[in-house]
TrEMBL record:
<dbReference type="Pfam" id="PF08241">
    <property type="entry name" value="Methyltransf_11"/>
</dbReference>
<feature type="domain" description="Methyltransferase type 11">
    <location>
        <begin position="52"/>
        <end position="150"/>
    </location>
</feature>
<protein>
    <recommendedName>
        <fullName>Methyltransferase type 11 domain-containing protein</fullName>
    </recommendedName>
</protein>
<dbReference type="InterPro" id="IPR050447">
    <property type="entry name" value="Erg6_SMT_methyltransf"/>
</dbReference>
<dbReference type="InterPro" id="IPR029063">
    <property type="entry name" value="SAM-dependent_MTases_sf"/>
</dbReference>
<dbReference type="InterPro" id="IPR013216">
    <property type="entry name" value="Methyltransf_11"/>
</dbReference>
<keyword id="KW-0808">Transferase</keyword>
């Protein structure tokens, strides 16, 4: 594949836009649904929880989140205007019933008051964080005391085998993420890595190792 094509794939994964962005978001949803469900299940969601997600993509998984407990409220934040629109459209019933709320933000400052959420999660976004330390402190700020944050990402050992990750991506292994977390006030509750089979761009099945880290304020 040409350098320009690889660069275009990386840009779409970082910030989906236009017709190609919609296609890319559908593909991401399909490829990453196991990681997303795993992240949601590790949050130990209970009734009445207020939950924030950073970088939801097309948010085709929000229905699954609402199956976890009664009277939940879901808040989604995106940097991509296209993903914000797609997510609102896909979840229009939840939006009109005021169960799901979507907004666009700058990727650095979380536009909510301190101690707003019981649970926060993010899947496959850490590679694109402009200032990881600052965003972690923002996540800490908007989490309620004893609230949980679940961070899910594919391991560097797998990601570096994908040719497009040389552009736009900062890759992380568990050790590198835990080093970032050490500099915050979060307590590590649980770390788990698992390997799953996913379809590669050329159609064959490959092993992807991903990690979920559950933190507590
Ligand atoms: C690779 S996609 C992952 C989407 C979905 N979470 C998944 O795993 O399929 C990354 C998404 O995160 C968004 N994004 C990138 N940087 C972000 C940030 N700092 N905060 C929130 N979202 C971000 C992008 O717009 C994109 O929709």
């Amino acid at each position: 594949m040409e350098k320009e094509e690889l660069q275009a794939i990386a840009s779409q994964l970082k910030h989906p836009t236009g017709e190609k962005g919609i296609e890319m978001a559908n593909m991401m949803h399909e490829t990453n649904i196991n990681m997303t469900r795993h992240s949601i299940q590790n949050l130990n969601i209970s009734a009445e929880n207020k939950i924030l997600e950073l970088g939801h993509g097309n948010a085709g998984h929000v229905e699954f989140l609402f199956e976890q407990a009664k009277n939940l409220k879901y808040y989604g934040l995106e940097m991509s205007e296209l993903m914000f629109q797609e997510a609102r459209q896909m979840n229009r019933n939840f939006v009109s019933q005021k169960q799901a709320f979507f907004s666009v933000y700058d990727g650095n400052i979380i536009p909510f008051e301190a101690a707003s959420f019981d649970k926060i999660f993010t899947v496959n976004t850490i590679y694109f964080w402009q200032n990881p330390q600052k965003l972690l402190s923002e996540i800490y700020r908007v989490l309620k005391p004893n609230g949980n944050f679940c961070l899910t990402f594919a391991e560097e050992s797998f990601m570096k085998t994908l040719p497009f990750t040389q552009f736009e991506f900062e890759l992380y292994g568990t050790g590198k993420v835990l080093k970032l977390i050490e500099k915050t006030d979060f307590r590590v509750v649980y770390t788990e890595s698992q390997t799953e089979k996913v379809k590669s761009k050329t159609g064959e099945l490959v092993d992807r190792t991903f990690t979920t880290i559950v933190l507590e304020k």
